[in-house]
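Task 17 of the worksheet. Students: predict the tertiary structure of the chain below and write it out as C-alpha cells. Keep your answer in the requested format; marks are given for formatting as well as content.
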Amino acid sequence: MKKRIVGMLLAGVMVFSLTACGGGESSEKGETKESESDMKVAMVTDSGDITDQSFNQTTYESSKAWSEENEVEFTYYKPESDSDEARKASVDQAVADGANVILLPGYLFAATVVEQSEMYPDVKFVALDVGAGDILGAGVGEDYDGNPDNYDVKEYYNSENVYTCTYQEDLSGYMAGYAAVKLGYKHLGFLGGMNVPAVTRFGYGYVQGANEAAKELGIVDQVSVEYVCGGQFYGDADITAYMDTWYGSKGVETVFACGGGIFTSAAEAATKTGGKVIGVDSDQAPIIGEDLTVTSAMKSLGTTVKTVLTDIKAGNWSDYAGKIDNLGLVSENPEENFVQLPLETTQWGDGFTEDDYHTLVKAMYDGEIEVSNDITAMPKTDIKVNDYGSIK
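Model answer:
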C-alpha cells in the first residue's frame, strides 16, 4: 500500500492560489515538477446529467470552458445507470480514453474515490462535495459509526492522487432565509431533494437565517417555515401536487427548492399562484425565471473547478493532494466567497438592499453572526417550523 501522509484537513476555509509557477520549478525536496502539457480532463456525472440546471451542469460548463480556454482536451461521461458500478465503469472508460484528471461532482462518488484512486494512482481525481464522512461510509461500510474523527480517513483511499472538497451550504442557506424574511416573505417553504448532509445543511441554515431576520424585525410570531424533502433529485407530478397545496391552501409565499431538478415542481406550482422560488447551487434565475426567483443560495463550483484545474496545469498538484477542504467565506467581499447570493439577480428591496447583503456577509465573516452546521436535529427557533419528513 502506498505510504499515507498522516493528518487531514477536515474543516476550515482554503484560499486557493490563483497564481502558480510553471513546470520545471524545483520543489523544496529538489524534485522537478511534472509538466502537465499532456493534461486531459474528463468529468463523470452523478445521478443527474449536464442539463440538470444545477450541480452537474455547472461543473460541466466550468470544466468545458476552462479546457477550451487552455487548449486542453475535455470529455464528459454519463453513467448508464444511477449506481456505483456504473459510475466506476465511466471512470474506467475515461482512463481508457486517456484522461489523467477526472472531475467527480457529488457525494455519490465516494465509493469511486475509495476504489479507483488505488486502481489508477497516476490519475488525479477532483471530487466535489465529497467529504470524509462520505469516504468513510464507503470504505468502512456498515460498521462506520458516523464520526469521521474516530478514523484516519486516508487509510481508506489513495490520498496522494485525490483532492476533495465540501461547501458550507449552511452559510448560503442562512443568507437566503435571512434575505427572504427581510424582503417581506413570512410564510416560507423548504423543498429538499434527498435527505443527505449537503441538502440538510442548506435547509437548516435557511431556517436559522429566517429565524434571525424575524427576531430582528420583531415578527417571530408571524413567520413560519414548511419543511419537507422529496426523496429524489427531480420533480414529478406527485411533488408538484404537494407544492400546489403549499402555495395554494397553505399560503406559502416562497419555496427554497434544494436538490437538482426538484425545483421544476416548485416553479410549476408557483406560477399558478404568483408564488416565488429560491434557487440553489448556481444562480438559477435565468432558468427558473427572474420574476419568479427571489435569490439563489450558491456554491461557487465554477471558481473551484477553474482554480484547481489551473493549478494542476501549473504543476501544483501537491497543494491539493490529500486535502479535504470545507469551503465557505474567505472574504468580507461577497463575490470572493465560495458560498454567496447572486448580486445581479437577487430581488433586492427596501427591506434588504445590496448594501444590507454586504453588511450581512461582513458580519458573518467577522464572526459576529454564527451559523450552526449541526445537522443532527432541526435547529431550535423562535419561529414555527413544520417538518414533514419526506414525500417519498
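Marker's comment: The CA atoms of residues 122 and 212 lie 49 Å apart. Residues 1-35 have pLDDT under 50 and may be disordered.
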